[in-house]
Each structure stands twice: as C-alpha cells, then as structure tokens.
Amino acid sequence: MTRAPPCPRLAPRAALLLALHAPLVCGVSIFIDECERNADVCHKVGQECDDSHNPYNLGNDWMCVCVAPETGEPSRASPAQCVSLGDCERHGHVCNDAGQTCEAGDDTNDGEFTCHCLPPSVGAHAGGPAACELHECTTVCASCAMTTQGQQNVCEAAGQECVDRFPSPTSTRDWRCRCIAPYTGRARAQPATCSIDECDTTCSHCANGKCAAAGQRCVEGSLEAMSDWVCECVAPATGAAPTAAALCLLDECASNDAANRKTCAEAGQRCEDPDTHADAVGDWQCQCILPQAGSPATAAVAACEEDECVTHTDTCAAVGQHCNDPDKAVAALGDWQCECIPPAGGDPQTAAPAVCIDVGMDCLDHGHVCHEQGQTCDPGTPEDDGAFECGCPPPALGTNQNAAATCALDECAVVCTTCAQTSDASEHACTAAQQDCVDPHTSSTSTHNWHCACRAPYTGEAVGEPAACTIDECAATCVHCAGAGASNVCRAAGQRCVERRMSTPSDWQCECVAPQTARPAAMAAAVCVLDECVGNEATCTEVGQTCSDPDTSVGSTGDWVCECIAPEEGVEVAAAATCALNECARDADLTYWQTCDDVGQVCVDPDVEARGDWQCLCQRPAEGEATAHAVEECILDECDAVCWSCADAGSGSACAAEGQACEDPVKTDTAREDWLCVCANGAAVGNAAPAQGCALDECTGISSAARSCEHVPRYSVDGCRCACGWDARGVACDGGCCDVDGVEACAVADDEFNRAKPQCAAAVGAQQVCRRWSDVPADAPAAEHRNVCTDAEQRCVDVDEAALETWHCECLLPLTGDMGVLMPTMCVLDECSLRRAVCALAGQDCFDPDTSAASTDDWTCTCRAPAAGAAVAAAAACVLDECAHAPGDHCTTCAGSTCAAANQTCHDPSTDDYGASLGDWVCQCVAPLVGERLRSAALCTLNECLVDPTCRDRGEPCNACEDAAPPQRCQDPTDSPASTADWTCACPAPSASTAVAAVASCAFDECSVGGRCPMGQTCFDPDQAPGSLGDWECRCAAPSESKAVVAAAVCEVDECIHDARVNCTANGQRCVDPDHQHDEDWYCECVLPYHGSQELGVAVCEHDECAENATTCTSHGQECHDDDLTAADTWYCRCIAPDETGDDVLMAAATCEATAECVDNTVCSDAGQHCHDEGDEALLNNWVCQCIAPYHGDDTLVGPTTCEIDECTEVCPTCQKVSMGDEGVCEHHGQGCVDADRGAESSWECTCTAPKTGEPKVGGAATCALDECDAECATCEKGVCDTAMPAQ
Predict the structure, then answer these.
(1) Bridge partners of 680?
(2) pLDDT for the residue 18
(3) Which residues of 279-300 are buried (b: 16+ CB within 10 A; e: fewer)?
(4) What is the DSSP letter of 854?
C-alpha cells in the first residue's frame, strides 16, 4: 500500500485555504459556522440563520431560513422571501381529502382550523375531518322532506311526524313519515296512510270498551275511516249497531237452538218466542196447532185439546143440529156428537146426525122447510097458528118467518169451534197477536176461512191462525225503517239497502255498491271507500311491487300507485314503477356500505337502476376501487401525493426542497411515513425527512469546471440570455469574442428568448455583458456571488451531486414550468395548481386563462361535459340538461333518444349538475295525449274530455258536453290513445242519459228512481223530457194490460183468455174469470139452458128440462120431473099423490085419476097448482089449491093460492141454484143474493158485499170493485196517506 506523502508546512492563511477546498487531504478538519458572524442579518427580519449545508466552506453559503408559520425558500447570505401562509393553506388538504371545506382560526392561534361539511350536510370538527350528518327532515334539499325554502315539511303538512333513521349524507331518501298516536302507519319519503283500530285503541271516537261492557263484540269497519266501528251481538244472539251498543235479539226457537223447537215439534206443537230480546231467556213457548187448541206453555209442552167439532160441525149444521165433543182430549177421537137444537128434541148421535123431532104443529108440518137448509124450526106461540120461524143453528145468525133464513157466520166476531175465538175462556187468536181478523165469506156454510192479517206497515196473513208478519224496512215507511223512495237513507247515499230478516225489526243495513267497499252499516249509511288497488293490484304485484291507494274516498280516482319494496325506491301513479336502489344506502336491509366502511373506504353506487354494481373507493389521496367488494389494498405513493404523512404535506416536497430524490418503498395506504429522501449521489438517505451529508450541490458550490471556464452558463447578470458561449479553450463561439479577463461582448443577443421574458424586453437587439461565476473573486462581496437560478427567482436543483452538469432551475411555487437544464426556465403562474381542489370537489375542471405571474384570481372552474357552466375563482353552478345528451361515460343518466323514439317530449325539471337532480328527466306525452314517466317512455293516455281552459277566452270551441244546455258531464271510459271517439256526455241529475261522442239527449226516465212500482210491475215513463215529471206509469206484467199513472196498478188478467189450461169453449162451455186481480179463480160455466160450473176445469152441465116444460105438467095439475139433468128429453109429468094416480108420461101430460072433487077440476091446474081434496067425499067444497114445489104458499080453499119462491135460497131452474149441492152463482163470487119479487121468476140478483161496491145484477154475478183508499178492510189505506203528508 502506498503511503500518502507528508503535508507541507504552510502558512496559516494558506493552510486555511487548503482546508476549505481539500479539508481531508492532509488530515486537517476545520469546522466554521458562518452564522456566528452573520446571524444578525437573519434575526433582524425574524428569520433563522443556517450554515449546515457545508460547514467547511467559507464561501458565504450560510442561509436565512423562514420561521413557521411563514414559509419560503432559504436565501443564501441574505434574508429570505418569506410568505405567511394561513392555517387552511397549510392544513386544508386534511379537509379537502374528506370532501369538506376548511375554515381558518384567528391570527392569534396558529394552527387552528376547522373542517366543515358541504351543504346540505352539516357538521364541523376542529383540526380534522368532521362527522357529517344530513337531517332530511329539517333540511332543505332535493331528497329532503322540504325541497324548497319556506315549504312546510310534507309529513307535518299531513299531520304526521318526520323521522330520519340514518342521518348520513350517503343515506338519502330514507326519511319516513310516521302517523301520530293513536294512529299507526309509516311511509318512506312520502306521507303515510294512517290507520287506527277503533276497537283496540282509546280515543275520542273509539269504542273505548263500550261493546265489551255490553257483552258484545266490537268490529272495525275500515282502518282508514273514523267512527265506523260496530257493536255486534255474540252468537246465538243477533243484532248490530254503529258506534253504540247494539239491541241484541235471541229467538230461542230459531235454528241455532233447535232443542226447544224439537221439544214442541215432537208433541205436534209450534215453538214461539214471545220476547226475542237477548236478555229474555227461557220464555219460549209450545203452542197448540189447529185443530188442537190450548194455552201456550212456557219452556214446556202445552196441554192441548182437540175439539173434533172444528172438523165435523158442518155435518151437524147441515141438518140444523149442534156439534158437541164431550171429551176434547187429543187421545179421545171419534166421540163427537150431533145434538138437537131446542125446541127440537132427540137423543145425540155419535159421529152422525141425530134424529130430532120438532115441537109444535107448525114445525111438524113445515119444519122440513127449515131442516132442508140445515136450520131449526121454532113454532112460535099457539096463537100464531101456521106461523113458524126458521133459525140458523149457532154460531150462525139469522131467522126468517115461514121460510128458510139467510144465515151468516162471521168467524171473526163470534165464539165457535171454527172461529178465531174458540171459547169464552180463550183469547181471540188475531187480537192477541195484535192483528186484524178478516172473514172473507160470512156464509154459514163457509167456515175455516177466517184469517189474521198483519197491521201496516207489516204485511202477511194466515188462514185460521196468527200470521207471520214481515216488513221490508228498505221499502216501508216507519219509525225504524230506512225509508221509502228518495227518503231512503241508503239510496240517498248511493248505496244499496238490504233487509236482513223481514221478520225482525231494526235489522236493515246499508251496503256499498261495487267497486266501493266497506262493512255494511246497521240502520245507517255505510262509510264506503274506493280502494282502486282491488282492481289494479295485479299491475304492481306482477312486477314484485306493492299497490296502495293514498286516498280511498269515493270521489278520488286514478291516484293508486305502484311502489317499489324497500330498500328499492320508486313510485308510479296508475302504472308499474321504475325501481331504483342505492345499494350503498345506510338502510337496515342493506349492508354493502358496511363492507366498505369497515375498512375505511367509501361505498358508491354508479347506477341506481342496476344491481350488483356498487363499488368500494379508497379515501383520497389513496387510489383504488373494487366492484361488489372492498379494495384489497389502496395505493398511496407518498412521494407524489399531498397528505399529512406524505413528503409534500401541502407546502412542497421535503426532499425536493433539499435537492434530493424521494422514494416510497411500499406504495400502500396502510404503509404511512415510510418515504425516503435520497441524496443525488446516493451518499445518504433520510427516513421521512431530508437526508443529511449529501455530496456537492452544484447549486450552491463552485465546481472546478466553472473555474476552468468550462460550460459557463450563458446568462447575463440580469438573467437575460446572450447568444454566445464558451468552450474548454476559452475561445469565443457563436460569433462573439472573449478577452483574457473573461468579459465577453456579445455580438448577437438571443432575442427569441428575451422576447418571452418581460424583464428582458430591453435586451432585445442589444449588446449584453455575460459574467462567469469563475470571474467572481472568492473574497468578493456576497452580492457578487450570484446564482443564475436565484437571479431568475427560481430554485436550483442538483439532481446528482456526485456528477457535474446535473443541476437545473425550477420554478418556485406557485409558479410552474419545465425545468431549465443548466439554465433558468420559463415560469408561469397556473393558479389551478393551488385552487384545483375547489373545482375537483365539485367534479369540475380548473383552467387558468392567463398563467403570467401578474395575472391572479382569474382561475376558472368549468363543468365537465356534457354539463355546461363556468365560474371565476369559485366552483361553477353546472347545468346539465339530461334531455339534450345521449347516455355515455360522462353522463350515464342522460336520456338520449329514449323519448324521441316514442314520439314524446323529454323534460329535465332540474338541470342542476349534482346527484340529487340526476336521473330526474321524464318523457312527456305530446298533446292532446297526457302522461309522463321517469327515465323511460311514458304510458300515454288520451282523455278526450280534457280541453284547454282558455278556449272560451280565445273564442274557440270547448268541451261539447260542458257547453251543452244544461251543462253535461264528460267521461272518457278508455284513456288509451288508440281508443278515440268513445267519450260520452252524461246528463246531470236526475237524468241518467248518456251519448257517445255527442251531446246527450237529457231525457229523464222517472222510472230510473227505484221503488216506484211494486214487485211484478214495470215502471214506464212515456215522456222523458227533462221538464216532464209526474207522468210515470206502473204497468202490469203480461198478460195483464192494466196500468196506473203515478201509482201502483191494479193488475187484472182475464185468465179465460191468457191461461192455456182453459178448455171450456172446447167443451161447449163458457169461461168466467170473476176477479181479474186474482189467479186460479176461473171456472167453466155451462151455457144456458144448462147450468153448472167447475173451478179450474170443465163443468158437469145439468139442465132441468122442467124449466121450460113444467107448464105442460102444471097446467094439468101435475108435477114435472127430470131425473137425468145431464141428458136431453128426459122430463116427464107425474100425477100428484095422494090426490091423483096415474103413470108417468115422458115429455107429455100424464093421465091422472083424481079423487073426489078434484076430478075434472081445472081451477088449480090452470093456475099451475095442485088440487088437493082432504079425502072426505061426503064433504063438498073442501078442496084446496096447493103450490107445487119449490114454490111455497098457504093453501087456498076452493080456488088458486098465491105461490112464492125465494130464488136465492131455493133450487129451481130459474134460481141461482139450479140443482141440489150447487154453491149458487152469488155465493160462488162472494156476493149476496136478493130476490126482490118472490112471486116472479128470474127476479133474483147478486149484490156486492162490503167493502166492495157495485151495481146489482139480475140473474147473474155483479161487477164489484174495491177502492182501498175509501173502504175499510185489512189491506185498505185507512187514512195512512192523510196522516203522512198533505201531498199524498
């Protein structure tokens, strides 16, 4: 190894100079701190002195350094240019990295700053990022409950409270409207549909236990309606009442308690519950059923008796006897007896007529006259010889002197076994039931036909027993009825009245008419709702959405909506919604945000209509993103980024400031403060700080090359460029010259360079002087040691201190420019380098139109395409009309041709370029079509009834329906654009007329108001003009042609014409329908001279030929007989025994041999009478003329007598009864018979019986009518109209 030569002995000054330039050559190490004598220069201006770069160099390399909070480049051997940066200029990146703004503290407190959240979010934090919150219930924003300033919160406007569960700025439109107790219900981002179960809730209009207190069940009608709860009785009781305890009824004989009914039925009895109130229990009765009778028994079988005379009384009455049942026990049958009625006597006969003997000669002689009619004979007093009286057997009433009586039996007015009152001890069957008793036929032979009739407004009748009364409370007028006609409670509300049980009062209810719904309301109008989801729900459910009708009132239509199911969002009126889902929302149903949040990343959903595209983004300044999962490793190069842990914490790179390189060995967000400053020559490394002990920095030292005049920078002292340079030999180049002292007179200046620098304007075309660093003596004043970068107000950087010619000039912040290799560069002031964060936070680009250093505060934020807008020195208010641009990378939410392709207009209601207003464009239908839809083609509708409301002002035709007189209502049943000319004009009430595509003829059919005509009749309005009222008619159903104006018709049908079963004419008979108002009463009647009739069938016709041939016999004092009334030519004359004898002669007078004085006596025969000789041939002139039956009269001695016949009661060819057993013409028609002239033939006439009226008719049935308004009867009006109202 070669030893170093020993150092020579040098003079002190020479040794010092040698040490400065070669401190270690001879082992000499000398440290000189130049700040010891120069510190005052820095301290005077509040700066620090630093001589740490090269402590062995006495070349005035000490520097003045700015003291925090001021900043600036250190200045060599002179005060530095320090700038006082504010707290936000130094620390604002901390807020900006979190997307927040910075607010500086006061000047007295250095380092104080506050991060503020961007509106509409709120929040602030001193010294670091704030925890931002967005309270959408109290803030005004596009997604909030208040969208405009001064607007009332939409929840509070609906009487509800607003709740924001997650007040995070990334969780929007998650506020909810919540109903206020006692109501329940909530809805996301819209008013809720509130409901209340009035049966389970306590409130002013709730049940509050009223039903339970009455032992009843509370039923809620509609959860959305108020005061519609109903108390319902608990089975088996029935009954209901709205908003009050009900009147409960319990019929213990009804089907739900069949045991009671079975108990009575097994005994052959009827079960009745006299008091059906629910609290009246155990009062059911078993009642006897005719023909049994007896008092009802409560909760037990009744003790019934059966009076067999109820059934067999006619057998006894037919012969004028009385029926008696000695033992009325049900088991004792067949013991009934016929008993003689005094004064007749005789033993009773069991189950048959008795043999009764009259008392008195008159009855012995003439009693047959009474007995033949089933009547009794009373001989009267002995003084009245020949006088007797026929009396009707009880309970019939009626007597007649010397002839059969006309008997009447009103079974409603007397007591008898067949009557409504069977004994004096029993109650009247009808009266006890509060009903009227009617006996339609009071003939003594007409029994068992009385009936009980219900009293108005109840209807019903029953023969032989109390009626089961019913009432249609929907049609009748009464205290507990719904009302009739227009006054009907249900009809007035547009509802249907339903009578639940016609036998039970106060049980009618109003029911809604489809499509309206609600629980029926008892005895009141129902609270009907129209839930349009009933018919439209499938539209929503088929696409997985829910249907709701926000307003179910009857008048609110077309407002049903499809709503996306949370967490998806979207609502569409009357159509399926387009659902959007912010997958990063902080919703209870979504956890994607948590995935990002757990690793300190931000969740972003780029397309809310797509699914599975959510992303985790690294927090700035770190970079990285991942779809549908967290970023595995966020990238952060702390040498390139600006952050609290970076080499550049906001005031420039710490390494670059020292001319060192920066390296980040691990470029991840988790590896912080691991950057290194590396010396240009690699001699040293600084861990998160500048390196110490680097090699020669050409920016501050003087190289040997400079001293040997090599590559001297070609700059003048003022930084302007000369057009000459130096080579290694010191020979001038580029046409210049150089003398030995190093001063060059530049022949040509670099004008192109100088023109670009304002300070070099004077150097253009001028001679300049260039100076080399080597020309400056080492001991020259500091002002002479000029650095070309510093002279140009730039920073010198030596990138490789181990090598030469590696330095360059860089612009000082905030100026920027390309680096000047071995020379100054052109610096510009691009203010965007400082203010870019303001624009970037708003998603905008920054542009500086004039980058000269003198041009400040002209930086501009410009909106990124396709948005438009710009602002100087502030974030721009960007405008983005999404309708004007096609969707793409820069506008995923734009409309493009979506609307135009559907021939629709695109409209962007909010062109603000921020998230809440993006994706809000709608396609709108082109008039006259209407409709719009968010982010897709609209479903257009055409309501042909809609017109421009200003049409009249312009004098143009308007809606034809509304312009009609009177104005009509226009309706378009189908809103499809393809369905045209289907609009209709509907007339105003009361007319219901309509017309399609034309003005309607507003005819009002008065029959459209229901209930005018009774069931079975048709209402007809002959003149339906609007002004024609009160002319409607009730017309009977075919075949009846009867009708009545403004009243129910009396329907008459001649069954002889319209009943197909009638076959009278085919059998040579005539058909008679006695009452055209009743069915099944026609009969066939024989044609004269035949007699006979048969109800509902062909009659057996009989003709007594003696009617026209009797004179042939009577003129000879003989009797005429016709034994076969159905055959012709069968009559014959017979001698009257015992006075005459002889054979019967067919169709001619007989040859009779008379006794005594009647021989050849023609006096009687000439009078049509019979000659009778008492038989004493010794006595003369004791013969008498006697009437020939059926004529009656007293015998007249020796001469004709006066003969009479009551053609109403007798049987004869000219009587109303032409044969025995015949009912009689008058009786058959329920009419009375009167024979006004008993001495004449065919003088009888039928008369109408009350309450019917009509003119009598001789020899036939009268035409009778019943005026129910004036008469007194069970079905008559009885003054109801007079008491109802004067107009009736």
Answers:
(1) none
(2) 34
(3) eeeeebbbbbbebbbbebbeee
(4) T
Tokens 């405008």 -> residue: 879
E strands, 471-620, in order: 496-499, 508-511, 521-522, 546-548, 561-563, 571-573, 602-604, 615-617
For 846, the 3-state DSSP assignment is: strand
SS3 of 1234, please?
strand
Quote the pTM value. Answer: 0.32
Whether 155 contacts 162, CB under 8 Å? yes
Identity (one letter) of the amino acid at 84? Answer: S
| Nearest of 973, 930, 925 to residue 948 by alpha carbon | 930
Q: Which pLDDT band holds residue 681 (cuts at 50, 70, 90)? A: low
pLDDT in tens, 741-765: 344 434 344 555 555 555 555 555 5
Residues in the chain: 1288
Residue 1026: count other Cβ atoms within 10 Å of its Cβ.
15
Neighbours of 717 (CB within 10 A): 13
Question: How far out from the chain centre does Cα 503 lie?
Answer: 35
pLDDT tens profile 131-183 = 888 888 888 888 888 888 878 888 988 888 888 877 888 778 888 898 887 88
Alpha-helix residue ranges (DSSP H) falling in 412-466: 429-432
For 427, the token pair is: 């109650």
- Residues near 644 by Cβ (< 8 Å), separated by ≥ 6? 93, 94
What span, in angstroms and rounded, lies between the C-alpha atoms of 1212 and 1209?
9
The answer to whether 1144 and 1133 are in contact (CB under 8 A) is: yes
- Number of Cβ within 10 Å of residue 1263's Cβ equals 14
DSSP-based three-state secondary structure for 1083: strand
CA atoms of 450 and 447, how far apart (whole Å) = 7
Tokens found for residue 30: 């000398």
* Strands of the 744-745 sheet, one edge to the other: 737-738, 744-745, 769-770
DSSP state of 366: H
Buried b (16+ CB within 10 A) or exposed e, 947-979: beeeeeeeeeeebbbeebeeebbbebeebeeee
DSSP 8-state assignment for residue 652: -
Strands 1183-1186, 451-453: parallel, antiparallel or unpaired by DSSP?
unpaired
The number of beta carbons lying within 10 Å of the beta carbon of residue 1280 is 13
Are 1217 and 1224 in contact by the 8 Å Cβ rule? The answer is yes
Name the E strands within 229-290.
Answer: 230-232, 240-242, 270-272, 285-287
pLDDT tens digit sequence for 836-868: 777 877 778 888 888 887 788 888 999 888 888
- For tokens 């670059």, what's the residue? 656
Q: What is the rounded distance in angstroms from the CA atom of residue 293 to the CA atom of residue 310?
A: 10
Residues 6+ apart with CB under 8 A from 261: 253, 254, 255, 271
> φ, ψ for residue 872 (rounded to 5)?
-90, 130
